[in-house]
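Late entry, evening session. Most of the bench is empty. Finally got around to the prediction I had been postponing all week. Sequence below, unchanged from the version circulated by S.P.
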Amino acid sequence: MSMISSEAEAHAKYRHSITCHTDDLAVVHCLRSLAQWAQQSGQKFPSWGGTTKEHWKRDGHCITLRFTKPQYLDGFRQKASELLCGLWSEVRASDNDPATPAKRR
């Protein structure tokens, strides 16, 4: 198995997603940190990969965060709502939206 297909398989486990909207870049960083906190096992980066400032601007002030288990997504949603109430909104969620590895340059 090649390293690329192995990486793709690992990322594919992060299929429970939530797309969040906020107009505040500082809140984006908080949401990313909460995603890392909520993803209690495995690699942390696939949870918040593709959520740079440039991605956020390009995607209309939205970021998509991904988790390996629905309970990790639920934990994220609960804690983000508790700590950042009114500073972000949920645009959509899915149980079949796997992460994909970043393209290598």
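Two things to note before I forget:
The domain at 3-94 is CATH 3.30.70 (Alpha-Beta Plaits).
The mean pLDDT is 88.
Will write this up properly tomorrow.
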